[in-house]
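ok so I'm stuck.
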Amino acid sequence: MRTSLICLITLFIYFSPIYSKTCAQSNKISPDTTANICIMHNTIVQQFVKKNAQFRGGDLNKFRNHVMSNIRYPVQSMEKNEQGQTYIRFIVDWDGRVKDVSVLKSSGYRTLDNEAVRVVCLSPLWISAKNDSICVPQSLIIPISFRTVGIINKVPE
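replied:
not stuck anymore, here's the structure
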């Protein structure tokens, strides 16, 4: 009885996000984003769609580049040589907004996870995913790696 209870709790923790954050985004559409034309919209989150959500006319790789150019390695984590990879799950809503940003798999360090969530929340509007001409929310996952190169110009003792 006790063994099965421990397994159940472990599975629940593993499959549930550590925490979730709602992002505040502006309604401003970037100049390189084409119009988000929908005949109608649906609110059921999809993982597989006919046309994936697009970041600024590109794909998830273009979004990765945006994330990496806006990420700030936390100084306290750098000093402690904290490294790891955080998997972030988020939803691109039917209207192109990023929402429900959560840590799917932690790097093991709260400061690194918080920075990964922060930078994904900075995302401008996307072109929403579509099934035919119906805009739908799409769930996406992005890994964000934190690696240090060590101490540069360390003063010898």
